[in-house]
Structures are given as C-alpha cells and as structure tokens.
Amino acid sequence: MIDARLDLKRRERLGMVEAVWGEHKTAEQIITILERFSAADELGLVTRVSPEKADAVLAALPAVKAHAHARCLTLGELPAPPPGPPPVAVLSGGSSDRSVVAEATLALSCHGIAVDPLMDVGVAGLHRLLDQLPRLESAVVLIACAGMEGALPTVLAGLVPQPIIGVPVSVGYGISQGGRTALEGMLASCAPGLTVVNIDNGYGAAMAALRMLRNR
Amino acid sequence: MIDARLDLKRRERLGMVEAVWGEHKTAEQIITILERFSAADELGLVTRVSPEKADAVLAALPAVKAHAHARCLTLGELPAPPPGPPPVAVLSGGSSDRSVVAEATLALSCHGIAVDPLMDVGVAGLHRLLDQLPRLESAVVLIACAGMEGALPTVLAGLVPQPIIGVPVSVGYGISQGGRTALEGMLASCAPGLTVVNIDNGYGAAMAALRMLRNR
Amino acid sequence: MIDARLDLKRRERLGMVEAVWGEHKTAEQIITILERFSAADELGLVTRVSPEKADAVLAALPAVKAHAHARCLTLGELPAPPPGPPPVAVLSGGSSDRSVVAEATLALSCHGIAVDPLMDVGVAGLHRLLDQLPRLESAVVLIACAGMEGALPTVLAGLVPQPIIGVPVSVGYGISQGGRTALEGMLASCAPGLTVVNIDNGYGAAMAALRMLRNR
Amino acid sequence: MIDARLDLKRRERLGMVEAVWGEHKTAEQIITILERFSAADELGLVTRVSPEKADAVLAALPAVKAHAHARCLTLGELPAPPPGPPPVAVLSGGSSDRSVVAEATLALSCHGIAVDPLMDVGVAGLHRLLDQLPRLESAVVLIACAGMEGALPTVLAGLVPQPIIGVPVSVGYGISQGGRTALEGMLASCAPGLTVVNIDNGYGAAMAALRMLRNR
Amino acid sequence: MIDARLDLKRRERLGMVEAVWGEHKTAEQIITILERFSAADELGLVTRVSPEKADAVLAALPAVKAHAHARCLTLGELPAPPPGPPPVAVLSGGSSDRSVVAEATLALSCHGIAVDPLMDVGVAGLHRLLDQLPRLESAVVLIACAGMEGALPTVLAGLVPQPIIGVPVSVGYGISQGGRTALEGMLASCAPGLTVVNIDNGYGAAMAALRMLRNR
Amino acid sequence: MIDARLDLKRRERLGMVEAVWGEHKTAEQIITILERFSAADELGLVTRVSPEKADAVLAALPAVKAHAHARCLTLGELPAPPPGPPPVAVLSGGSSDRSVVAEATLALSCHGIAVDPLMDVGVAGLHRLLDQLPRLESAVVLIACAGMEGALPTVLAGLVPQPIIGVPVSVGYGISQGGRTALEGMLASCAPGLTVVNIDNGYGAAMAALRMLRNR
Amino acid sequence: MIDARLDLKRRERLGMVEAVWGEHKTAEQIITILERFSAADELGLVTRVSPEKADAVLAALPAVKAHAHARCLTLGELPAPPPGPPPVAVLSGGSSDRSVVAEATLALSCHGIAVDPLMDVGVAGLHRLLDQLPRLESAVVLIACAGMEGALPTVLAGLVPQPIIGVPVSVGYGISQGGRTALEGMLASCAPGLTVVNIDNGYGAAMAALRMLRNR
Amino acid sequence: MIDARLDLKRRERLGMVEAVWGEHKTAEQIITILERFSAADELGLVTRVSPEKADAVLAALPAVKAHAHARCLTLGELPAPPPGPPPVAVLSGGSSDRSVVAEATLALSCHGIAVDPLMDVGVAGLHRLLDQLPRLESAVVLIACAGMEGALPTVLAGLVPQPIIGVPVSVGYGISQGGRTALEGMLASCAPGLTVVNIDNGYGAAMAALRMLRNR
Ligand SMILES: Nc1ncnc2c1ncn2[C@@H]1O[C@H](COP(=O)(O)O)[C@@H](O)[C@H]1O
Ligand SMILES: Nc1ncnc2c1ncn2[C@@H]1O[C@H](COP(=O)(O)O)[C@@H](O)[C@H]1O
Ligand SMILES: Nc1ncnc2c1ncn2[C@@H]1O[C@H](COP(=O)(O)O)[C@@H](O)[C@H]1O
Ligand SMILES: Nc1ncnc2c1ncn2[C@@H]1O[C@H](COP(=O)(O)O)[C@@H](O)[C@H]1O
Ligand SMILES: [Mg+2]
Ligand SMILES: [Mg+2]
Ligand SMILES: [Mg+2]
Ligand SMILES: [Mg+2]
Ligand SMILES: [Mg+2]
Ligand SMILES: [Mg+2]
Ligand SMILES: [Mg+2]
Ligand SMILES: [Mg+2]
User: Fold this and answer.
1) What is the 8-class DSSP label of residue F26?
2) Is D2 a residue whose pLDDT tops 70?
C-alpha cells in the first residue's frame, strides 16, 4: 500500500544528497530506501540508526558502511576532500558530545568537506578555548556543540568573526536534560550573529556550513 | 555609582559595531552611551527604542537619526553600499513583519550592505513565493522572516541552495502568540541546513549574514 | 469489583463503532471487552496494541485479526467499501509516519470507507506534492499527517479547497520530539480553515472525516 | 520600500476571500490594503481591529463597515444567504465568548452562509445543552466555542453525529488564562472525531465549516 | 550512615497512618521501614511498588500482603468497615484508570472506609453517567478519576451537590500524555467547588475524603 | 442575536447561587444579567469586576453593592450567618493575598457561612502559624491561600486533621509570577489529603467548603 | 477585618530585617506596615515599589526615603559599613541590569555591608571581565547578575574560587523574555558550585551573601 | 580523531578537583580519563555512573573505588577530614533522596570535608525537623535536599541563619515528576537568602559549600 518518494533531485536543486532519518523507520524500510539510492547511483546516508538496526541492514546489504560514533550508515564511495586546511572547525564543550560531532563530520565528508575537530573546550575551564584561538583562524565556518548551559558558542561569537553555527546537545540532567536549556541559551545569546539549529542536529549544522561554503 | 563599559574593540575583533539594546535602558542611559560612541568616532546604533524614548533622545542629541519602522536610532554617517546587486535578500511572510525586516535592513546598512526586500510571500498563497525564485538567484544570503507557524524558511530551504537565516516573528495569537511556535517550527524543519535566530531578532540575522559575507 | 461499561449505542447516536483504547489496558481487559462486543454482534476495534499484547489476545481469541502497521486489532467482518474513487485521501510528510496513516486507514475501513494514500510528499521537496495535486481532486476530505515542523497541511490548505484534517506525528527529535511542534505549527497555520486533531491521532482524524462524509 | 502582495486568487483556488489579519498592522497599512481589495472588486475583510484603529480606518474610508462585537471591518456588499435553515450552528459555553462567536458568524456571512447561534450552553449546567439537542438536528456543521476547561465540544461530540469544530476561547484565569487549557482539553478529547482550531480562531473555524459545506 | 525517621505520630495528629512512597525506595529500604511499623504496632502501607519489588519484599516478610491492581503493600490487619452504604463513591472515565481507583480504595480500606466503585462512566457516552445519578445519592464524598481531557469531574460537579475530588489520570497520548491536560482541565473547571489532587494520586484523594468524613 | 442562559436551577441542584464571571463581560452584559437574577428573585453575585466596570454597573443599578477588596458585586440581601463559631477558617501567607481571601469570604457570606480570617501566617516566620493552631481547632474546613512557593497549605496539612483547600495566589515574580509555582507545589505536596483549586480561585474554594459543610 | 502579622523577630533569628514585598500591596497597606516597623524601632525596607506608589507613601510619611534605581523605600537610619574593602562584589552583564544591582546593593546597606559594583562586564566582550579579575580578589562573596543567556556567572565560576550567587535578570526578548532562559542556563551551568536565586531577586542574593559573611 | 582536554589546573584556580560527568560517557572514555588523572597525580572523581558501567571500569582499573549509593567512582586516596564537628550538615526530606545526599557527601569527602547527615526530616511531619534544630547549630553551611513540593529548605531558611543550599530532588510523580516543582518552589521561596542548584545536583551543592567554607 505504502511507498517512499525519494527526493533524488536534491543534489541538483541544493547541492546536497538526501539524508534519510533512520530513527522512526524499520530496518526493512531503510534497506529498501538504500537500494533505491544505489539504483539511482546516488550516495546513501542514513542518520540516527541504532546498533541493532545497523546490524540488520548490514546483514542484508554488506556494501553498507556503519559509522558507530556518528550512529549513521552510508552506501557508496565518499568523495575525497580537496587538499589544504579543513574549511570547517567543529568545537565541543565536553567529550560527552562525541556523537553529535561525529554526525556533523560525516555529513560534511559525504560532500567532500574536511573538518578540524576541537573537543572538550568548554567554558568551565576557559583557558582550554583561549589557547586554541590561533588554530581557528584558518577555518571558514565554525560549528560549536555544547550541552548543559550551552555557553560555548556565545563566548566564541564574542571572540572570532567567522559564521558560527551553535548546536545544542542533549547532555545534562535536571533542568538541562534533553538540551532545551542549551538551545534557548544559544538563541538568547548576547553575542552578535550566532545562528542555531535543533538539539543534537549535527547533520543540519553540516548542511548549513555547506551552504555557507558555496560563497568561497 | 554605575557605569557602562562599551565594547569599542568589537569592530576590530568581529568587524561589527556594538549595537546597544535600548528596550530596558532609560533615555538618559542611551544619551550617555551615544555620546561616548560619538566621542570614540564610532557609529552608534541603538535598537528597540520606543517612539517616546526616541523623542527624548533626539531632543538632547539632534544629530541622532530615528528610524521609525525599525524602532532604531543611529548616530553618525552610514557607509554607502558598493555598486552591484544587493548580496542579501530579506523575505517576509506577511506585511505585519515589517519592523523585523526593517531592523535587519538597517543593521546591514550600518555595515555598508544593501538588501533586496521581498515582503508578503507567505506559504498560504505559494505562487507568490514561487514567482520570485528567479529574483533570488543573485542573493548570496537569504534572511526569511515569518510569524504564525513560520513555514516560509522551511519551504525556501527546500528550493534554493544559499544560506538561509530563519527569523521567527512574534506575529500571531493563541498558540502562536509571542513567536515560539514559529521559532520551534523553524528549528524542527525537515529542510536541510536552515539556521535560526531568536524571535524578532532582525539585528542578529543581519550580523549572521555579515559573518557569512566575509567569505566572498 | 471493577467492570467496563461499553458504549454500544454509539453506532446509533453517532454512526460509529466504539474503538477501545488499548495502550493502558491489559490483554485480559482487552479480551473481555472484545468478547462483549462480539456477544453484542458489534464490530470490535482496539487501537494502540503492542505486538506482545496482540499475541496474547490472539492466543485467547483466534478470530481476532491483528493489523501490524496500524498497531490495531479487529474482531468481526469489515464492511466492503462501495465502488468508485476513494472519498478520503491520506497524505504524509515522510515514510516514518506509516503507523498513523495505517491507523486512520483501518478506522475508515471499519466504516466502509476507502482511502487513497499519498506517502512521503513532505515540503522539503515541494515538487513531490505539487505533482500530485490533480490526483487529489476527486477526494472529498483530506487527512494530512506530518511530523517535525508539520508544514504539510499548511501548504496543502493554501492550494486546495477541500476540508483538511491535520494530524501531527510524533516523529522528530530535540525541539520536535513528541510531536508538539508539529501540532502547534498546524494550529498556528496561516492557511485558512485547517482543523487539527491530537498528535498521532489517526483514529480521530478518520472519525472526523466520517462525520464530514455524512453530508455527501 | 515595502509592499503587500495580496492573495487575490484565493477565491478561485479555495472559494474564499483573503481575510487580512489586522492586529499587527497599522491603520495606514489596513487602509492601503482595503483600497486594493476594492480596486480589484473583491470583498475586503479585516479581523482583530481595535476600536481606535477601526475609527482611523473609517475616517479615511467611510464606506467601510465596522462590526464591533466581531472586532472586524468589511468593505463591499455581503452576499445574502440562501433561504432555508442555517447550515451552521455556533454554540458557546458562556456569554464571555461573544467576540469569537461574532467573528465566526461574520466570516461565514462574507461567504453567504447563515448561522444559528446558541450562547451560554456550558457544561456546568448540562440541561441547557441537552434541552437544545433537537434544535441542532438541522445543522450540517457545528462550531463549539468554550473557554476555561473547554469541555463543551467533547460533550457535544458524544451526543451528535455532525462534524464539530472546537474553538478554544481565551476566557479564564490562572491555569486557564490565555486558552491553552481549553485547547489542550479539546485535542485530548475522549469523544471521537472532534477537530480543533487555534485559540479564539473564529475566522478559521468559519473557513473550515465552509470547506465542509462544499460537499452538500 | 543514613536512616528513616517514620512519622509514627501521624495517626494521633491527623487520624491517618503514614503511607510510604515506594517508587524511589529499594526493597531493602521498604523491608526495614515495614519492620519498624510492625514493631510500633502500626499498620504499614506502601504505595507505588513494582511487581518485582513486591516479590522481593514478600520473600523477606511473608506476612506482607500485595495488592496487585493498586500496586501497594500492606502489613497488618485492615480494619473492617462499619455496616451501611459506603460513604465514598469512586468514579472513573474508562477502564484504563483501574490502578488509580484501586489505590484510592485500598487507602480508604486501611482506615475502615468502604467504597462504591463506578467504572467507565466517561463523558463520551454521557448516558452511562446520567443513568447512575440515583446511585450516587447515598455517597457523602465523590472521587472522580479521569484521563485524556478529564471532563468527568466537571460534568459531575454541575449535577450533584456533594464534595467532589478530581483525580487526573496519566492515561492518554500526545497532548494528554502524562495527565497534565486532565489536571489543568479539572483546575480550570467552570463547575463550582471542584477540588483537585496530583495526577494519579489515588492515595491523596482517599486521605482528602477521610478528612471530609470527620465532619459527619 | 446573542443571549445569556442563566443557570437559575443551580440552587436547587447544588445548593448554590450561580456566580457570574465578570472579567470578560462588558458592564452592559453584567447589568442585563443582574436584572434577570433580580427578576427571578435570586441573589446575584458577580466576581472579578474592575473598579471602572463596578462604577458603570452601580450607575445603572444603584441597589447593587460593590465589595472593593473582593472585586465583586452583589445584588440582593446576603443571608445572616447562624450564631456560633465560624465553621470556615481562611488563612493566608501574606497580606498581599487580601483580594483572594476577600473573594472566598464574600462567596461564603452569600450562602450564610461565617469565616475566621488569619492573614500573614506564612512559613518564612513559622511561629506566626504555630501560635494560631489552637484557634484553628473549632474550624470545620480550612482554606489556605499562598503565593510564591505556596508552602503554607503543605505545612498546615501536616499539623491539623481537617479538610484543607489550598488556593495558590498569583503573588510573586520571576519563576513564581502568575501563581503556577504555588499551584504546582500544592499539588505535589508531601502532606496527605490536601486538595487544590485554580490560582486565585477564592470563589471555588468557598464553594468547595460549602459542599464539605453539607455533611455536618 | 484583615491585618498584617510582621515578623519582627527575624533579626533575632536570622540577623536580618524583614523586607516587605511591595508589588502587590496598596500604598495604604505599605504605610500601615512602615508605621508599625517604626513603632517597633526596626528599620523598614519595602521592595518593588512603583514610582506612583512611592509618591503616595512619601506624602503620608515624609521620613521615608525612596531609592529610585532600586525601586525601594526605607524608613530609619541605614547602618554605616565598617572600614576596609567591600566584602561583596556585584557584577552585571549589561547596564540594563541596573535595578537588580541597586536592589541587592541597598539590601546589603541595610545590614551595614558595602558593595563593589562592576557593571557591563558581559561575556560578548570577554576582555571586559578578564581585565577586572585582579579587582575581584578582595571580595569574599560575588553576586553576578545577567539577562539574555545568562552566561556571566558560569564563566566567572570557572575563573575564581569565591562563592558566586547567580541572579538571572528579566532583560531580553523572544525566548529570553522574562528571564527564564538566564535562570535555566545558570542552573544548568557546567561550572562547579554556582548557586542561583529567583529572576531579578537582588534582595534574595543580598540576604544569601549576608548568610555567607557570617562565617568570616 | 577525538580527545578529552582535562582541566587539571582546576585545583589551582578554584581549589577543586575536576569531577567527570559519567552519564553520557562510555566505560572506555571513563577509563582513559581516569588513567590520565592518575598519571597527573590528581584524585579522580566520576559522577553518575551506572552499576554496569562501574563494573566495566573496575574490571579494567582495579584500584578504582565504586560508591554505590552515590553512583560515583573515585581513583586515589581521599584526604582525611580534620578533627572537630562536621562543618556541613546535609538534610533530606525523605529517605528516597539517598543518592543525592550520598553524592554531595562524597564530593565533600574528596576535599577533606566531613558531613553531618539528617535524613527524612520532611515538612509533612514538622516535629522531626524542629527536634533537630539544636543539632544544626554547629554547622557552618547547610545543604537541604527535597523532592515533591520541596518545602524543606524554605522552612529551614526561616528558622536558622546559616547559608542554605537547596537541592531539588527528582522524587515524585505527576506534576512533581522530574523535580521541576521542587526546583521552582525553592527559587520562589518567601524565606530570605536561600540559594538553589540544579535538580539532583549533589555535586554542585557540595562545591558551593566548599566555596563558602573558604571564608572561615
Ligand atoms: N487511537 C485512538 N485515538 C484517540 N481516541 C481513541 C483511540 N482509540 C480509542 N479512542 C477513544 O477513547 C475513548 C476511551 O477509550 P476506552 O478507555 O477504551 O473507553 C473511546 O471511546 C474512543 O472514542
Ligand atoms: N501514593 C502516594 N501518593 C501521594 N503521596 C504519597 C503516596 N504514598 C506516600 N505518600 C506521601 O509521601 C510522603 C513521603 O513519603 P516517604 O518518602 O515514604 O517518607 C508520606 O508521608 C506520604 O504522606
Ligand atoms: N524583592 C524581594 N525579593 C524576594 N523576596 C522578597 C523581596 N521583598 C520581600 N521579600 C520576602 O517576601 C516575604 C513575604 O513578604 P510580605 O508579603 O511582605 O510578607 C518577606 O518576608 C521577604 O522575606
Ligand atoms: N554530578 C555532577 N553534577 C553537576 N556537574 C558535574 C557533575 N559531575 C561533573 N560535573 C561538572 O561537569 C563538567 C563537565 O564534565 P565533563 O563532560 O566530564 O568534562 C565538569 O567539569 C564538572 O564540573
Ligand atoms: Mg571536560
Ligand atoms: Mg498577506
Ligand atoms: Mg522522505
Ligand atoms: Mg453562564
Ligand atoms: Mg470506555
Ligand atoms: Mg509578611
Ligand atoms: Mg553593553
Ligand atoms: Mg518519610
């Protein structure tokens, strides 16, 4: 009765592959969709895939590659990034933010963009961030991930002139459980020109960075 | 007893002038601050100034210019934009969004950036937006303002490849009063790579666009 | 000590069978209730039944039919729909919305109403919806299911004149987890005359459509 | 700089006139828009207009008609409804709901639809509603407005088979102030097939009723 | 290091035994507490005990009695209720509310109060409630439990003069998941003199009824 | 077009007069309603009437009595309370709660019930409450009003055995502005058998007390 | 009928004068209360007094002193602070926070404690704060006030070892309007050992500092 | 690719060891981090570690000590507290709050501070708290933990003059589930000078106490 209508023209319109949201789909739905991407000669990227679901997909499609930290699957060759310093730096407040950083990094890799990662530079120990400012200079776009109170992108946006994409992370407890406090703190930021994506949305931050890199 | 500590080095660090948040300041505080900007030979921009407060400031400082639609004050000459098509397009869902559009436009003017405005292209009459797609092609960055359910930036992000900054607007009533529904809809967008700023934050959207234009 | 008081006169009053809400009932409670429907010669429909609970009920009552996608049970013959084009079209934004679409479709089948399904026509790839507009013309009522920002029913309501019932779906994460963002976006819609039901309420949307079809 | 793009093709597409949301527009914006509707020979309807703004518009455009209870303006002749019993009944829980009832009634009048009003039939005195059930029989669609806990549409939907559009009203205080409790109660209704619109959205309920009447 | 300080004087001050909140305690903590109640010759009542925890407690203290529907444990003899019609009626909207009804009933039994249960008299089929009104006449206090939109206590409070304690139940989904919509609907009730307790608080409703029965 | 349907049989069914909610009604609506109560020989009670509206009503109906602290109007003779100690004590946490206390007191007076008021016995200075415990002994029902964190009814319910009706008051700021924190604190109370009404609902607390006094 | 029960023993128990919450009291209530403080030879402090109310109180009690920035009244001599560096530093993110800083400062003055104010050291221009770190060394307790995203206390708590009391300020708009975002950000802080008070609660922060100074 | 940047200078700056947030880290990440603390000769403290994760860490690092009640791990010798009465008292409302009390106690032990625990002194049986007041006199700082309505710190702050740190606990159900009601009640407290930390934040309360003890 029911069918998926893939957006295979997305690369043409937007310069992006369609990523498939895996969390609310069954392994069977994911397998069918990946086969159709493959038939259309398009790179397949599936996000938010649990380890169990990943195993079920790999059993059916051994050419699929599972990216454990990023909780993603890909089918097809990732394009090699051009030489030179990575145009995107991805920062994170703590090492608990790892999967969001990994999702953003993989989504950029799917489009041939390299990433410079700076983990655990949260504002509770400010020197860790201030020490890294020179390293940030070569980046064209910054993605800053933070949970709890989410102050990292705010502090960063007061220090450097590049575009900064804040990614609130669902790390925390009590009032910050689920990432809303980090999200709202980034939106309310007193620093000028910070933009924000949904909680844990590493993929969205990567696509926003991709749009910004068009202008180089 | 109490004093304001202006961030006069912001232009050097970030390429931006410091904008002063006028809503919770008295006319006296604003006057003092503008005088200090002027003394430092820096352009002064004050946002969220009510008509009454604007009148009080102008009475004391006749060189100040009031921008009624934008609810802003400026002191000092605005730089002339370079020739060529405006690099930023500002779209809005309805003509009620006027003051947010005007704030974004003025904040860009303060930095010598011209804007192409497209008002009242909301998704309830989709043809109004589809008709304008060719006109958007020359824009480097898009700012899309919308109240109520805030679907305009989502639809736009599915159609064009540029960076899109969604600005939720506090136009609406009941469940959408205050702009949270528009904000959350933009953050939850199924379209890839949309970024978002705070409700009614025309100034912040402008500064984000400015950061993105550095890369040209 | 405790007893269920079935609403067996609902068909007479409202032209509907009573659906039983299965989620917070034990298999034993469901079995007793289905036996009583059967004894009263009424079609039995139970919604929100987990696979485990469904198995327990089928073990006791082999005549029961389990509808896996819809997470429902029925006992008794479903009426055959009359010939002709289906009077209801059910659209969905993504293929993750499958169980809500299936619940609505089954609830209509229980009343002899056929459905035309249009899955995965979300607004991030607008052409998928615009392509299907002619097919929608023969529908008397539209049910539009969408998660995340829930913009599909809004866009639809600006394009076609039929009654449209928006069903927010609990597909999403972060700010849209649980479906509230989709719900509030549909309620705040700038498109005229969209009505809305509870999150994931496929059953309710079907019953609303049934009420609207009385007038044909 | 800025302009309104009226949706003058709405009647053709949807069989409706475009209503203008007056609350966040200035009198000047409203006057310009009404003049353009008039120039296009289309009926003009403006909702949520304060008495002061209405006076300012009437001073400029004496042909405009102000509807005080409905807080609306119209410009142009309202079509006469056809003979026969009104196809829409509008019920309300208390006499405080008057302006929402009036907005719905006027919006239907603009499309030639007559209304049967039943005010103050709230569930705290149930006999007032039960007494009126026979009178409801001739209605094709019911619009039920209620503030506070908003139980009226739920009780009604258990009693009669027609389509029922619930309109939560922002009457109440404390926990029900602003109408969210009424809204959520209607959405959570245990009665089958109730649909809901935004708080105080008399206009939207009317347009939904209009869509449902197409099928007669 | 750590110890529980039982409130063994509660019966003297308030005429109630102390109930122990079991949900966040380990089986070991519950066993120790019950032994101390028993040593003090006081009836022990523990609420919100999962089946697994109940088994662990019963293994250590075989004299404990588990009440499965009520999810409670007792240790000690329950007092026999005096002859005559039960002074408390407990109504519920659906048969999913069973455990809340059972908790209230058991807590009253611990104080020698008998209960008349009326299950599944929800407002979606109003006749089920109206039919039972005569049976309610002999009750001194009514406890009305309802999930979803929670309209039952409101309708009841418009019909009968006794004290009515509304108990919102966490049965529902989407907007009503967790019971807040039922709670807020009861608090916002347009019916006069309804009082409310926390979601699922059958124990609290029973203790409130006990306080009200002192005056007989 | 529109009419109020008074619930004149409320005294017969519930032993109460119908109170009219004045906040969202015009002076004209209130005047008409009071005239109809008077014509039916029933006591008229209108709550939440602003001073300006009260003046307008009194100008038209000089027999009306305005109760400034309670923000209410009455028309008709209040019944004299029977001799003996007042059966209801009304406590409040601070002297800012005065209007809620006054509304409850007046609503009881309309039914011939006398009240013992204990103002400003909040828990920040606990001795003020502990000193008054003997005075509370003769009360049959207690109404406890508190804003901010709303702890007064909780502390009280641990100390005395009577029925206690908690009334959260919209006194406070920041997190407690509007009274929700007081409301939720009362609902979450660890003290057994406290019941609660809506924020500022002095009238509802009074009607609940009236129901409880039936049993004496 | 109604009376205020002042907590005149607060100085003895807690070492503090009772502050009177002025916002929800009439000028008449405030006058009576101040007279009673004066009669008891106690310093009177009233917070949250609007300019109009302050004028009315001063007209009746000319010995009262109005503190305009702090929105407070005092009656009686403030104790002179001992010589030496001020033990409390009060920092604020922007000059819009002035009234909260002033309330905290005045409340400490009422207890003979001097304050070192550091205004406008928000994190958007981090150098302004880093420059002042040496000046903070002599402070025993820090009070840090911030609106918008409220990151100042978090950054501070990662840099200095003293007790830090975070005061969220209701400066901001959209998502940060009302101060909740600042509050939640401070509570969710990743910096160790930050404590927080209610939004705009300068008085409470001062009293917390006073408690901490007891230990010197 | 990714690395943790420990804040090993925290002891120097703040007099505290860095605690590692264990909940969102894998056992592998925790093992690596503890090894690096050990290599730097710093005490390692990891909070929020599930029993399973603790087992995995202990298998790899047998020198690690697991603290079951506190759900924490330590690596390295805890400093012995100096002789004399414990400077910190930790109170809790019920015995369900045990793990929060234990986390606070352990975090203080890591810094050589002893604790006097007072469990189960909740306000529903006030005498339990009043009886212990003399014992509290020797404490320099109080930490008060409470779930449900969270009134314990408020009552305490009205009785004793020391600094009080309120810790809301996620014990409760319905409206108080998750601890927000306790948190908001503490923030809204009418008692002067109470400060608050995040829900369940025993660690943060301990670090705040440590800051306050610097001044002795
Ligand atoms: N999936 C569903 N969604 C919404 N409402 C439902 C659903 N299933 C049953 N109901 C309604 O919930 C009411 C209460 O259910 P019950 O608890 O089974 O008596 C029924 O009368 C149905 O109208
Ligand atoms: N099921 C329940 N619902 C509401 N309150 C309860 C329940 N069970 C126990 N309580 C109350 O919770 C308080 C705290 O419980 P405990 O943590 O056991 O000391 C007890 O004094 C009871 O009054
Ligand atoms: N500005 C303020 N912020 C927080 N609490 C306050 C403030 N002013 C007074 N209070 C407290 O509020 C309590 C209740 O005030 P009142 O209603 O005047 O009895 C007083 O005892 C004070 O402790
Ligand atoms: N149980 C806890 N509660 C609150 N904060 C904590 C807790 N454990 C660790 N932290 C803080 O969280 C910060 C970030 O942790 P991490 O992700 O391990 O770098 C640490 O620097 C600690 O200050
Ligand atoms: Mg770290
Ligand atoms: Mg328009
Ligand atoms: Mg898709
Ligand atoms: Mg009425
Ligand atoms: Mg049922
Ligand atoms: Mg007081
Ligand atoms: Mg500044
Ligand atoms: Mg206990």
Assistant:
1) -
2) no
What six digits make up the tokens of C119? 């899955």
Is residue G187 within 8 A of residue G195, CB to CB? The reply is no
Tell me the ipTM for this assembly: 0.96
* The two three-digit tokens of residue B156, written as one number: 């736009």
**What does the alpha-carbon distance between residue A32 and residue A27 come to, in Å, rounded to a whole number?**
9
Q: Is residue E96 within 6 Å of ligand 1 at its C-beta?
A: yes
Q: For B167-189, what is the mean pLDDT?
A: 97
Angle at E139 between CA E133 and CA E142, to 5 degrees: 80
Give the tens place of pLDDT for each residue, B90-144.
999 988 899 999 999 999 999 999 999 999 999 999 999 999 999 999 999 999 9
For residue A2, give the nearest of C98, C124, C173 by CB distance.
C98
- Residues D4, B128: C-beta atoms closer than 8 Å: no
Q: Which residues of E164-180 are buried (b: 16+ CB within 10 A; e: fewer)?
A: bbbbbbbbbbbbbbbbb
Average pLDDT, chain H: 95
Contacts of B180 in chain G (CB under 8 A): 175
CA distances from A108 to A37, A81, A111, A147, C4 (A): 19, 10, 5, 22, 57
Secondary structure element (H or E) that encloses residue F107, with its range: helix F98-109
Q: How many CA atoms lie within 13 A of H100 on its CB side?
A: 33
Q: Maximum Cα–Cα distance for chain A, whole Å?
A: 59
Instruction: Collect the ranges in chain C with pLDDT lower than 70.
Output: 1-3
- The whole-number pLDDT of residue A7 equals 84
Alpha helices in chain E (DSSP H): 10-14, 27-39, 51-60, 98-109, 127-130, 133-136, 152-157, 180-187, 202-213
Residue ranges of chain F with per-residue pLDDT less than 50: 1-2
3-class secondary-structure state, position B7: coil
**For chain H, how far is it from start to end, CA to CA, in angstroms?**
46
* Encoded tokens for B13: 């660090």
Strands H141-146 and H115-118: unpaired
Q: What number is the average pLDDT over the span G23-28? A: 94
pLDDT-derived band at G215 (thresholds 50, 70, 90) equals: confident
Contacts of H137 (CB under 8 A, 6+ apart): none
Nearest to E117 among C1, C7, C199 (CB): C1
Q: Which residue of C has its CA nearest to A7?
A: C125
**How many Å separate Cα H29 from the centre of its chain?**
23
Percent of chain A scored above 70 by pLDDT?
99
Alpha helices by DSSP H, C93-175 = 98-109, 127-130, 133-136, 152-157
The answer to whether the beta carbons of residues D209 and D165 sit under 8 Å apart is: yes
Instruction: Quick: pLDDT tens for H70-96.
Output: 999 999 999 999 999 999 999 999 888
CB E23 within 8 A of CB H173: yes
Pick from A21, A64, A69: nearest CA to A46: A21
Cβ density class D204-213: b for 16+ within 10 Å, e for less: bbbbbbbbbb
Measured CA to CA, the distance from residue F198 to residue F179 in angstroms comes to 9
User: In this structure, what are the phi and psi dihedrals at residue F6, rounded to the nearest 5 degrees?
Assistant: -65, 150
From residue B104, how far is each of B202, D3, E78, H5 by CA, in Å?
4, 17, 72, 39
Q: Do E2 and H95 touch (CB under 8 A)?
A: yes
Cα–Cα distance for residue pair F120/F146, rounded to 1 Å: 9
Q: How far apart are CA C92 and CA C122, in angstroms?
A: 7
Share above pLDDT 90 across residues of chain E, in percent, rounded to a whole number: 92
Between CA F7 and CA F14 the distance in angstroms is 11
Query: Which residues of H are less than 8 Å from A125 in CB distance?
Result: 5, 7, 9-10, 18
- Report CA(E36)–ligand 2 centroid distance (Å): 16
Which residues make up the environment of ion ligand 9, defined by Cβ < 5 Å? E 94, 120
Count of H helices and E strands in chain D?
A: 9, 9
Instruction: Determine which residue's CA is closest to atom 6 belonging to ligand 4.
Output: H21
